[in-house]
Automatic annotation (TrEMBL):
InterPro entries per the UniProt record, alphabetical: Ald_DH/histidinol_DH, Ald_DH_C, Ald_DH_CS_GLU, Ald_DH_N, Aldehyde_DH_dom, Aldehyde_DH_Superfamily
Domain of life: Bacteria
Protein name: NAD-dependent succinate-semialdehyde dehydrogenase
Catalytic residues (UniProt): 270
Keywords: Oxidoreductase
Gene Ontology biological process terms in this record: gamma-aminobutyric acid catabolic process
Species in which this protein is naturally found: Mycobacterium lacus
Record lineage: Bacteria, Bacillati, Actinomycetota, Actinomycetes, Mycobacteriales
One of the Pfam families matching this protein, by short name: Aldedh
């Protein structure tokens, strides 16, 4: 049902599909936008055109250490604020973000390449973390019990863990920042956020929103160092830092876990995925194809949750493949700001070339490209919707995260076979299952994944615990669990 508000919003969106007037290109430390300690700048390009959008400050290691020091200075007073104050600031941040949805979405599309519709959906999702954790900020509980021996009261209070370093990827430049900042601030932690070098402008805009919402100086700091390695390493070795929350590739996550170990820094890791999408014998083909389109094509396939491998029961394989290929063929591709395009650009030519190499290898191994299969000529990091049939269950493409609009289809005969193939990976973030409720739930329990979508093509929800098992990560973001990552229990033994 469309409401008057929707109509109003749609009108505004048409008016203002332009990036914000002010871009935040410096560092934000101790409540001030300030230049870095070096004159070096980082160029940010529009991947759909290759054109330069802006240059941002290249933060030095000393800048990053200053950001941690500012967060450390602000820590005690922020932790001491009444939860209701922290909650209301986060609520204001949600309101501002929703009001500025159109220009923020345009900014995401411009620096990331994704379609404007995907960018709008990201802003809705990203803003919701502020609202959700505004609500969680006032619900941090504790415990009070009598010891079994009756010799004391066991009082457990839950306290902010301390200064948090938040490192985010380019594929969801707004949502990955708010999914960390919101629970950190709600819990009473102060933070330094380091966005991906490819997409720093969206994170800068979010930091500005938090400042306008009333976050005091030093509570949120923002740095953009390149290379990231030495700067993040220095922050993790700063004695004030007690938390690392990282979203990105498993390779970098592994490296940062090693670095966090030196100072025993608590680490939450949201890493790579390799989601299987299972179409069981009892599935409704229309629903499965619609779900496959969302699970594969949301964010142009550049989501850790993206369906990476499609396992389809032999009895449905022909019909599913035909209808899915048709829907993929009908997907229009081009610059994301043009509303006609459902699929935008990938983040860079290098990423586009990686996707092309994965497809070329799959074809060498016997797959047939029913749709797509070759990058178009011309400017921009585009790769077309691609469906690969006849993929062998052990093909290399089943073992790597594609991160692009490419769907390999593998045919199975038995449920055991499908589950075995689906679980044959070191990743364990998401699985998708289509089928009758009983079979789909049975398979959902057998999949090795932190999250399973049953007869749904998308499952991300700020109110649900998001995270992976195996090499897809440690810890959860969102839900009532998300704030726990930023809290520590303190046990006080009391003898009256
Ligand atoms: P990436 O690992 O290359 O980079 C992520 C972040 O780490 C960026 O900010 C980058 O600048 C920084 N970084 C890179 N090298 C570093 C180093 N040596 N030391 C410290 N920081 C470093 O990942 P990406 O290419 O930006 O994002 C894509 C990956 O992120 C995919 O694997 C995707 O699955 C994953 N991802 C996971 C989730 C999740 O919730 N599980 C969500 C989104 C993306």
């Amino acid at each position: 049902m469309t409401t008057l508000q929707d109509v109003d919003r749609a009108d505004k969106d048409r008016e203002s599909r332009a990036i914000p007037d002010a871009l935040f290109t410096e560092l934000y430390i101790a409540g001030q936008w300030r230049p870095p300690g070096s004159s070096e700048r980082i160029e940010v390009h529009n991947p759909a055109t290759g054109s330069l959008i802006a240059t941002v400050a290249n933060a030095t290691v000393a800048d990053c250490e200053a950001a941690v020091a500012a967060a450390a200075d602000a820590a005690a007073s922020w932790a001491a604020r009444p939860p209701r104050h922290r909650s209301e600031i986060l609520r204001r941040a949600w309101e501002i973000m929703v009001a500025e949805r159109a220009s923020l979405a345009a900014l995401i599309t411009t620096e990331n390449g994704k379609s404007y519709a995907d960018a709008q959906a990201e802003i809705d999702y990203a803003a919701e973390f502020f609202r959700w954790f505004a609500e969680e900020a006032v619900r941090i509980g504790g415990d009070y019990r009598l010891s079994p021996e009756g010799d004391k009261r066991i009082v457990v209070s839950r306290e902010p863990i301390g200064v948090a370093v938040l490192v985010t990827p380019w594929n969801f430049p707004a949502a990955m920042a708010t999914r960390k900042l919101a629970p950190a601030l709600a819990a009473g932690c102060t933070a330094v956020v380091k966005p991906a070098t490819e997409t720093p402008l969206t994170a800068g805009a979010i930091v500005d929103i938090l400042a306008r919402a009333g976050v005091p100086a030093g509570v949120v700091n923002y740095v953009t160092p390149r290379p990231a390695g030495p700067a993040v390493r220095a922050m993790l070795h700063h004695p004030a830092v007690r938390k690392l929350s990282f979203t990105g590739s498993t390779e970098v996550g592994r490296l940062l876990l090693h670095e966090a170990a030196d100072n025993i820094v608590s680490a939450s890791m949201e890493l790579g995925g390799n989601a299987p999408f299972l179409v069981l014998e009892s599935a409704d083909i229309g629903a499965a194809v619609a779900g496959a389109m969302v699970a594969k094509m949301r964010n142009g396939g550049c989501a850790c949750t993206a369906a990476n491998r499609f396992y389809v029961h032999r009895s449905l394989a022909d019909a599913f493949t035909r209808d899915f290929a048709e829907a993929m063929r009908a997907t229009t591709m081009g610059p994301g700001l043009d509303p006609a395009n459902a699929l935008g650009a990938l983040i860079s030519d290098a990423e586009r070339n990686k996707v092309a190499a994965v497809v070329a290898r799959a074809v060498d191994e016997g797959a047939i490209a029913l749709v797509g299969g070759h990058p178009p000529s011309g400017p921009g990091a585009f790769y077309p919707p691609t469906v690969l049939a006849g993929v062998h269950p052990d093909a290399a493409i089943t073992q790597r995260e594609i991160f692009g609009p490419v769907a390999p289809i593998i045919v199975f005969d038995t449920e055991d076979e499908a589950v075995d193939w689906a679980n044959r990976t070191q990743m364990g973030l998401v699985g998708y299952v289509y089928g009758d409720a009983c079979s789909a739930m049975r398979v959902a329990h057998r999949l090795q994944a932190g999250m399973v979508a049953v007869n749904k093509g998308v499952l991300s929800d700020p109110a649900a615990p998001f995270g992976g098992i195996k090499q897809s990560g440690l810890g959860r973001e969102g839900g009532s669990e998300g704030i726990e990552e930023y809290l520590e229990e303190k046990y006080i033994a009391v003898d009256f």
